[in-house]
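Supplementary Note 2. Why include the ligand at all?

Several targets in our set were suspected to adopt different conformations when bound, so apo predictions alone were not considered sufficient. For every target with a known small-molecule partner we therefore ran a joint prediction. The input for magnesium ion is given below.
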Amino acid sequence: MRTAAGAGPEPPVVSLEGIGKAYRMGQVIVQALVSVDLRVRAGEMVAIMGPSGSGKSTLMNLLGCLDRPSAGEYRLAGRPVSRLGDDQLADMRNRTIGFVFQNYNLLPRLSALQNVELPLIYRGERASRRREAALEALGAVGLADRVHHLPAQLSGGQQQRCAVARALAGRPKLLLADEPTGNLDSVSGREVMGIIQGLNARGMTVIMVTHDEAIANHCKRIVRVLDGRILSDEPVADPVQVASQVAELA
Ligand SMILES: Nc1ncnc2c1ncn2[C@@H]1O[C@H](COP(=O)(O)OP(=O)(O)OP(=O)(O)O)[C@@H](O)[C@H]1O
Ligand SMILES: [Mg+2]
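The joint prediction is reproduced in token form.
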């Protein structure tokens, strides 16, 4: 892929080289990641799999700039993350990355609409623009008729769709999802996967953690992690497609 200016190939969205992450627990050091190399290009949809404790969430936290590696270099959209200060890092995170978590992480006292608007407030978007983008994102995930509901008034699948709307309202380059279907029944899980596939088809790069092979097979590539190392990294021959009604975002 070439940039419009013809300035050479676009850098990978994610590039990890020799990434290590050690946690210190008193006298004990837990080596959660060891020499991880990973590149993810624009438009990919990658599943990260591995047993409990293998380092998946640690990896996602680093990718999401929620934590810093102890070793190695992380470039996000071509920029070396390790050289950014805390404010620059937060800004990069807000502008580049959308997050979806297993337990939705919606604020219980805010409506669906207010939850989706929140990251746009942090970005300093004007109120009218914020509202417009949030309504559009909620419409895209099929929640146009639920915008004033509180999270507790939504089903689990609807809450996760709201969380996806919150992630996509800011038009991130990269969607990071840690077990996005982990709390959902299989029908709601497929629905959420259909929405994520729809976003990916429109150009969003996706990296998601899942324990579920059936969910992973909706992705285009599966990276398997064991004991903090990448065990295998292979394309999915024929990803399962879910027909979805994700509306086109303007
Ligand atoms: N904040 C922390 N402090 C100390 N050790 C940690 C911390 N977070 C994770 N670890 C350790 O790092 C290793 C990897 O943990 P991680 O949460 O990345 O696993 P995971 O693959 O996401 O597991 P699961 O599938 O259970 O979510 C584990 O041994 C864990 O105990
Ligand atoms: Mg985890």
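The CA atoms of residues 25 and 31 lie 11 Å apart. Helices lie at 56-63, 86-96, 112-122, 127-140, 156-169, 186-201, 213-216. Comparable summaries for the other entries are listed in the accompanying table.
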